[in-house]
Every structure is written in C-alpha cells, then in structure tokens.
Amino acid sequence: MALPSILLALAGVVVGLVLTLVTGRFELNAKRQYLSILEAMGWNPDMLRQVRLFENALVGTVALPLGVLGALGIGLLLAPYAALWAGVAGLVAVLCWIPIATKVVQ
Amino acid sequence: MIDAVRVRAKAPGSWKEAQPEVEKLAAEIRDMGLEATIVAGSAREDASIFVPGYSKDDAGKESALGTVQQSWVRQNAAEAVTGSLSGTNVTLLFLTLCGAALLTGASTVSYIRKRRSEAGTLRAMGWTQRRIRNWVLEEFGVGAVLLAVAGLVLSLVSWSLATALVCVAVLLLYIGAAFFAAQQLRHRDVIDQEPQHDERLIPVDSPLTFANRQLGTNKFNTLALAVAVGVFGAAVGGLIALLIDIPRAAGASA
User: Fold this and answer.
1) Per residue in A49-72, pLDDT tens?
2) B17 interfaces chain A, CB cutoff of 8 Å
3) A contact residues 37-66, partner B, Cβ 8 Å cutoff
4) Do the beta carbons of residue A2 and residue B246 sit within 8 Å?
5) DSSP for B32-79?
6) Where are the alpha helices (DSSP H) in B75-128?
7) Is the pLDDT assigned to residue B253 strictly greater than 50?
8) Contact present, B234 and B227 (Cβ < 8 Å)
9) What is the pLDDT of residues B55-90, one digit of tens each?
C-alpha cells in the first residue's frame, strides 16, 4: 500500500543525486585543469586533496541549512512526529556527501 | 432485549475489493428499516474513558469510578490510511516535480555552456540567429516528444488526473527550458577586459584560501552545487520520514 510513496520518495532522492552530479560537472574540466596547474607548481597530492576537500566542505556549509530545513519541512508535511529524524537524516546526508564527493571527483 | 446484531459478511479479497459488497449488504439492511454500521476496515484502539457517577455512598453522594482503559474500535481506519497515503503521494509528487524543475534548469545551463562555442562557430560560418534557434529547438524537440510519449503512457497506465497534470507540467517546464536555451545562445559582443587590480583579492598561501577563492570566483556554480546538495539532503530526510511513518500507517489498520 505504501509502495507508491516509497517509490516516489526514492525518485526524489535519485533526482537530488543526479542534480548534484549534473551541477558538479559544470566546472569539472576547469577544475581538473587548475589542479594539474597546481600540481605542476609543486603542490603535493595531499595539498591537492585538501583543496578538493575544502571546496566541498565550503559548499556543504552553504548546503547544510538548506538540506536540514528542507528535510524538516518535508518531514513535517509527511509525518510530523518523524520530522526531527528527517532533519537528522538531511544533516547526515549532506555531511556524507562531502568526503564522498572529494573521493569521487578527482 | 436484543438491541444489536452483528452480521458477518463473507466477501473475499482485500478491504478495497470487498468494500462494495459490504456496502451493498449494509444498504439492504437499512432498507429493512434498521440501522447499519460498517465496522470492516476498522482498527482496535485503546481508549481512556472517564466514568462518572459510578457508585453512591450511604449519604447518597455519587463518586466516579475514574479513568478506565478499554479496547474500542476505530471505524473506517483502512479508509483513513488510504486517504493519508494519497495525501503523502501528492506531497511527494510535488516535491519530485520541484527536483525535476531544478534538474531541468541545471541541465539547461550545462547545455548552454557546452553549445555556446559551437553556436559562435556556426554564426561565424554564416548561420542566421533564426537557424541557430531552430537547431536548438529541434534538439530539445526530440526530448520533448520522448517526454510526451512517456507521460501519455504513464497517464494511461495510472489513469489518474494528478499523474497527467504532473506530466503536462514537466513537459511545459522542458519546453520553457528549450526556449530559454535558444535565447541564451544568441550572439552577443563580448568585451574582453583585462582583470583590474582588486583590493579584495586574498593571496593564495594554503589549500583553504585557494578553495575559498575558487568558490568565490565561480559563485553561480558554487550556489548551484550547494542547492543541489541541499535538495539531496532534503530528499533523504523525506525518505527517512516516510520509512519511519510506515509502521504507524500499517499499525493503524492492523
């Protein structure tokens, strides 16, 4: 009975994931280019990893309020008593995205 | 004195399948001049009930029994759960539509960036603005036809007005994005300027300052990615809220 709702919610997550992939690809070539320039300038792999991590962390900082408030809002609409858990899930999702994006986009 | 008779209807299948048969039987009982209340698709529920005037003492003073716990039946619980899930579906459909709108916007921006240089080359080869516009619209047209077919099939399979409306909304959004992309690929004279000295520029001496400067320089990309990550977080939160809510919805009809 709840299968359509679960499918729709999963579709929402997939849409969000694809959205991050599409927007992450906007400047992917330019990003690879400046990282190779920095490497040629003598920056070591650890410093280059830090650049990617800090970039994603700064993006994550901007995304955090949006993700948490959005999750709280959706939680209040769908199941008010589970809104807090929804907010926590939104927070964890954004925090998990930071190291994953750092690892994946190289 | 008999004031209530419980009639058990033998109707196979789920509540949804059996409901018309049960309602028909109830209507037949009502036609006999009796009152009929359908309790199928109901759920047991513990209720706290205050019982006043339970006993009298020798002086004739009434005293209450207090609050007792009793197992009562909530009528039409199955119907209520079905209705609440329909409401959930509408909310989720709306949210998915918002995500799809953002996705269309992001894809359009990506498309414009990729095709800008091609449009410039074609313009230099003598293509008119109108021809470039038609080229963009034809490319989007293929996607629009596929979307329209998928929407039509989905609407016919689900036979629901909400699905049809969502499909039409997505198609309109896509067509709007096509016209926006065609507009953005119009030829413009770009004045190449040397970067001016900016007091706000900070020296790059660490990975953190470099990352900060890169993000500050590409504000649009930074903001678009932040919105995308935020939408992803919100969607995950929505999924978790729904998963937590399933046992409650199922329990209400048990």
Assistant:
1) 888 888 889 899 999 999 999 999
2) no
3) 38, 43, 47-48, 50-55, 58-60, 62-66
4) yes
5) TT------TT-EEEEEEEEE-S-EE-TT--EE--EEEEEEEEETTHHH
6) 77-124
7) no
8) no
9) 887 777 888 888 887 776 666 555 555 555 566 666
